[in-house]
Amino acid sequence: MSTRVDDWVASYGRAWEERDADAAAALFSGDAVYRDHPLGPPHLGSEGVHKYWSDVTATQSAVSVRFGSPVVSADEQRAAVEFWVTMENGGSDVTLTGILMLRFAVDGRCSELREAWHFEPGRHDPPAGWGL
Predict the structure, then answer these.
(1) Cα four-point dihedral sign 21, 24, 25, 31
(2) What is the pTM of this model?
(3) 131: left (phi over 0), alpha (psi -120 to 50) or beta
(4) What is the residue-level pLDDT of the chain in tens, covering all 132 positions?
(5) CATH for 3-121, among 3.40.250.10, 3.10.450.50, 3.30.420.40, 3.20.20.70?
(6) By CB distance 3.0 to 4.6 Å, which of 18, 30, 85, 118 could disulfide with 96?
C-alpha cells in the first residue's frame, strides 16, 4: 500500500466531486500527458488538464466518485486504480466506470494519466467484490 498514491487518488476524487479544475490541475506536473481517450489527442501540462477538467465537468452535478484499491509498482512510480462514478450529466443520471493508469514524477505529481472507461445511462452500484 502506498500512502502517496492513496493520497493522490483521494485528492483526484475530491477534485472531481467538487468539479474543481484548479485542484485537479495541481495534481499534475507542468509537462504531464493526460489521455482521456486512447485515440484522442492528449491534454498537455497542468494547463491542459485544467482546460479539459473545466470543459468536461461543466455538465456534471451530484458527482459521487469511488475508487478501488490501487495497484502500485514497487518504486511507487506507476499505479492503476479502478473508478466508479455516478452523477448527473446534462441532467441525466449516468454511471461512468473505468481505470486510470498513472505514472508519477519524483515530486509526487502525476506525469502521465491514461483512462479507459465505459459510460452507461442510469445510476448503477458496483458488483460485489469490486475494487479489491
Answers:
(1) negative
(2) 0.94
(3) left
(4) 578 999 999 999 999 999 999 999 999 999 999 999 989 999 999 999 999 999 999 999 999 999 999 999 999 999 999 999 999 999 999 999 999 999 999 999 999 999 999 999 999 999 999 987
(5) 3.10.450.50
(6) 85
